[in-house]
Amino acid sequence: MRDFSLNHECLSINTATVRKSNGMDLPLPKIIEACVERGIGAISPWRDQVTAAGLSVVSKLVKSHGLKLSGYCRGGMFPAVDSQATQAAELDNRMAVDEACELNAQCLVLVVGGLPGALDGKAAHKDIARSRHQVHDGIAQLLSYAKSCHMPLAIEPLHPMYAADRACINTLEQALDVCDALDPDQSGALGVAVDVYHVWWDPKLQQQIERAGKSRLLAFHVCDWLTPTTDMLNDRGMMGDGVIDIPKIRGWVEAQGFSGFSEVEIFSTGNWWQRDHSHVLDTCIARHKSFV
Amino acid sequence: MRDFSLNHECLSINTATVRKSNGMDLPLPKIIEACVERGIGAISPWRDQVTAAGLSVVSKLVKSHGLKLSGYCRGGMFPAVDSQATQAAELDNRMAVDEACELNAQCLVLVVGGLPGALDGKAAHKDIARSRHQVHDGIAQLLSYAKSCHMPLAIEPLHPMYAADRACINTLEQALDVCDALDPDQSGALGVAVDVYHVWWDPKLQQQIERAGKSRLLAFHVCDWLTPTTDMLNDRGMMGDGVIDIPKIRGWVEAQGFSGFSEVEIFSTGNWWQRDHSHVLDTCIARHKSFV
């Protein structure tokens, strides 16, 4: 297992972590600048942040600073109510692949979607099996495009509490079943993003990480689970402030040969997004050394 | 599959559902009275409510009205930091078995506990595997006592969002693994409580319900999953107000021969606990007929 206490060369910052500084929106170029200043060598930006700053601007910044992208957030949201919506999702996902390519991301992260409409509080139906079929079909179709662009797709199983509105792939086992069905040769074109927040509770986690193996482990995300958690989306904890034994999970992932970045992804309306981003990034570096 | 539209003879009210009426505590005898008035033939009371009213008082009420108990809530909370705390949990769980016997409950529901201290925001450790071992051992020990009293134990897998603070058994598969280990003969002494709120998201739900079979299916709880869910504990929905396809899951359970009650268990600080319990119970009856 790698020794993270020495430096932070394996640290990546998911840019949602410093989406806000002192409660105010922080533009992506400012985030990049602050990361570069601290010798942080990798980021994982969100599409809305890239769009706001301009893809070509971000691409130039990333290249001029020699930044790596541990991933690009995000494609997915496959389930749809009709063929028009399905087609719109397809097009949008191809654009996400294109952007990921332009930024030379290591993978495009897929948050696959749940029941259509549920995110707006109006689920179109209650048939989660139907959504899961649509996700399967959507990934299958996107995969052929992504393969032609040499952009790996990383299915991110989301915590079961997001099954209705964000992602109906909720365990690593389920994600790997999709990988096995669509990429039986383990070509590296399709794999998983393991985010400790989503999977730490899973009694089959170690077993399924071993099943995934190096070829399927495309990304590793960290933060912490707070007790109590006061908001289901935006109350993630800084590593060390919660109950997840992150080094244990990292050990399992690295035992499979994973040698990528540890990407810090924290959504925190009430705490970290209220603080100055300099402090947040410095804390990420410190906690990466001691709690990841 | 049974036709629930005809009457509500298969309805049970978990008394937490009307724990409060118009925001005020409603004592268990009042709850029982209101259920009896409506021809509700079964309840599932909580220990704190029974203690507040007095076990013998409740026992007499239950018997004089011919009420059945679809379950008794609850035993469990096995993980502990030291042998003293372990012993205290043991004694308390035996008392819960005794009370369940006195009330002639069909099973004692087990919410097994998570990381000790996490419920108070101060987890004593991060080793969920250790907690799971303690749960296994705790159930094993309680089972021999419960068997001697002929009181079935129903392990309730709780939603993974409660893994840290309430229960580290989080899927039906995991609960059944414990059942298979501790009661390989499927004697009926150990089984599961299937609460749709906790398990609806599980891609292996149908498969594991089939695995459980009649002998392990000791209780069936219903409510609904709201989008959005604004509180992780106390924002459960009334059947029909959320995204769970309850009849589908009931169909799977009944296909195994389950013929017990559908127990309505709703924790709802902001909505149902603010309403008059008469209205809540009438709504439970109506929704039981149309959405369960």
Description:
Two copies of one chain form a homodimer. The first copy, chain A, has 292 residues and is of the alpha/beta class. Chain A has one domain (11-291): TIM Barrel (Alpha-Beta Barrel). Helix content of chain A is 41%, strand content 14%. Chain A has helices spanning 28-37, 47-53, 55-64, 83-102, 128-148, 172-182, 196-199, 205-216, 246-255, 277-291, and strands spanning 11-14, 20-21, 24-25, 42-44, 68-69, 72-76, 108-111, 153-155, 190-195, 217-222, 262-264. In chain A, the strands form two sheets. Chain A has a nine-stranded parallel β-sheet. In chain A, strand 7 (108-111), helix 5 (128-148) and strand 8 (153-155) form a beta-alpha-beta unit. In chain A, helix 8 crosses helix 9 (246-255). Chain A is globular. Chain A starts with 10 loop residues before the first strand and ends with a helix. Chain A binds chain B through residues 115, 118-119, 121, 123, 126-128, 132, 159-161, 163-165, 168, 170-171, 174, 200-203, 225, 227-229, 232, 243-245, and chain B through 115, 118-119, 121, 123, 126-128, 132, 159-161, 163-165, 168, 170-171, 174, 200-203, 225, 227-229, 232, 243-245.
Q: Topology of this structure?
A:
Two copies of one chain form a homodimer.
Chain A: E1 11-14, E2 20-21, E3 24-25, H1 28-37, E4 42-44, H2 47-53, H3 55-64, E5 68-69, E6 72-76, H4 83-102, E7 108-111, H5 128-148, E8 153-155, H6 172-182, E9 190-195, H7 196-199, H8 205-216, E10 217-222, H9 246-255, E11 262-264, H10 277-291
Parallel strand pairs in A: 1-4, 1-11, 4-5, 6-7, 7-8, 8-9, 9-10, 10-11
Antiparallel strand pairs in A: 2-3
Helix pairs in contact in A: 4-5, 6-8, 8-9
